[in-house]
# Entry
Amino acid sequence: MKVPLRWLNDYVSVILSPVELAEKLTMSGSLVERVTNSGAHLDDILVARIENLERVPNSDHLWLASLNLGDKHQTVVTGAQNLFPGAIVPYIGVGKKLPGMDSPLKPKKLAGTVSEGMVCSGRELGISDDHEGILILDMVVDGDRAAEAVGQPLSNLLGEWVIDLEITPNRPDCLSMIGVAREVSAVTGAPLHLPEPNLQETSPPASELAAVRIEAADLCRRFVARVVTGITVGPSPAWLAERLNAAGMRSINNVVDVTNYVMLEYGQPMHAYDLDQVAGHVLTARRARAGEQVTTLDGVARNLSSDMLVIADRDHAVGVAGIMGGSDSEINPQTTRIFLELANFHPRGIRRTSQALGLRSEASSRFEKGLPVTLPRVAADRAAALLVKVAGGVVAEGVLDAGQSRVVPKVIPFNPAEVHRLLGVSWTAEQIVGSLEALGFHCAPAEAGMVEVTVPWWREDLQEAADLVEEVARINGFDTIPETLLRGSVAPRPESPGQQWYWPTRSTLLAGGLSEGSSPGLTSLRSLELLRTDDSVEWLAEIVPNPEPVRAAGGAFHPAAVVNPLTPDRQYLRPTLLAGLLEAVRDNLRAGEDRVAFFELDTCSYPRAGDVPVERRTLAIAMAGRRTPRSWATPETDLDFFDLKGVVEELLTRLGVANPRISAVTHPLLHPGRAADLQAGGTPLGYFGELHPRVAERWDLGTHRAYVAEFDFDALAAMAGAERAFAEYPRVPFAKRDLAVVVDQARSAEEVLRVIRAAGKNRVARVTLFDVYQGDQVPDGKKSLACALDLQSPDSTLREEEVEQIIGRVRKALQHQVGASFRE
# Structure
């Protein structure tokens, strides 16, 4: 809800600055999203009146204008032909800068006459595209206000402070200027001034000219209409168009603008029909008929269903109720009689219809939150009075009113002691009652210290005493409620990186198709021995993902034993998660599962000399079997190393680990040539690859290849980055080049890609390996890596010579750093 402060001042005198008022509203529960001033860039422009206008000697098109600036006078030379004495115009003096100008304005001699500044067009001010002549201010805004602003900065005249409020669904009353004014009055104590419609009705009665009916009482609670005749459709007066523009709405014509103005003022949507285009001069709120269609004001033909409410004349639907009117009865320049329709619709029906049609409007956003039944009658009188004011005509006698018209005020028994019980604040009963009365509640004393609170008609969201406590709290300001610490508990310790990144890691792996496993924290030497591949004494130390805890053990690395184990199979604190995961993989494969993919994120224990074991969070992954379920639609392929590598890379991306490095290694637990380790910032984080065939045989995995990974999660989480940098989508095209790089077979593709990125600097946006070739066209012991390079400059399209320079730089780096040659 955009609230122009100049408009708001019609209802409540705002003596606070816009920023102070925004703070007050926020602390009272009305969240202010932003405070803007549309005229801040016009502070150096002054409002001037042309006192005299005469031709410049020896010129047939230049004028010498004498300007009144309030406390001084200036003379300017202009070629504009739309000026006249008495016109109020914008003026900029010497030494000032127009919006968009790089340097201040200097004195300029035209036809031998020095100009002391200049008068400005709308384009020069940056407020319109008009540059045919000087902007005549008293034709843009109210003439009296323009005259009062002579000598003042233009920002005072054209600028407007606007507070943008985020209105919660339970407060539809604040989707109106008067609703916000009530809040401002309550928090500042300023008196409220509501408009008083001065209606002069004339014969014949409205009931002789038109009628309204309700046929779907479950969807329409009240239907109100006014008839205004003898109007003239035309442009709106300056004050009306200016206020609508400040509130974010476009001026259309005086009739439509009045309906929008009153909707913004009171929060009650309405629609003006051309009475002569309404068949039978009757409007009915009914359900749509099967197959019925209506063309709405946006020109779209919409198919309706029987659970939708429409406004219909005698022959057909003329609008979708509460959302948008139809195009066949809209106001046009020939319209002279207005059928002004206002109603109260059931919120659920409006919400359901809006979603089904994919159509939202200012009206539907208000109706779907629930509006009071009393409001249509109040807004109808105000709109009719304004129509007469801006479009002429007369108001027909009486108001057409169908449905629920009487509303019994809601009375809530309230004990002021509830404020202290729920808020812990000791305010007196007088303060509490005063807060409620400031919001428009009527409070009457009752027995035993109780107060009977009558809820105002515009607040249908309040149901019980706790709601009144909230009203008291917010109107006194949430910042006035003292802060107190919880008692009887210890403040939690800050989360470690491992705790912070536990849930993001878990959700990423689950989303990647893995299932979470959970194995016992105690294991046996027999299970650990199944991971052994050689006769090395330190074999267990070599499969730990991070050597740091091993070094802390101070000697041979042995798992920490439990003094009093419950069973021989659970005697040692586990130093690795892989034994438990491989057991789960084996059991699932034996049970006939085609694909098994597990992860576990839990603690492992490492002994320390002369001290209790240290616990480290560890992440392990184990997968085997088919890549996809057996199906006629997909080939039968098994999981491989790159499926596991993809999971690892996706996790690194989610955690935001900077510059991770994956390198081929030889690892005792992994298959020779199908093993990799992971490092970041020089810190070893773990390893992954295909399980060694000897280990797979020991675990009785049959013919399946298994792929495993184990990482020191505490070290990995310490490398994670919480912040994400947003990169704007590129506005210039890529230059695409392919490069076939011939290197030794032992050289990893990752190293080649790393050299290409470094040599290309910030011009290589993306590099992708798309082919590996080892054949007759490359020497023995070599391989050809085909890479696709996407080159791009952040601010301009790369020229061909620039592309060739980048490719040359990449080639030279590859030759020097990896001994590469190239295939053409």
Remarks:
- DSSP finds 27 helices and 39 strands in the chain.
- The first strand starts at residue 2 and ends at 4.
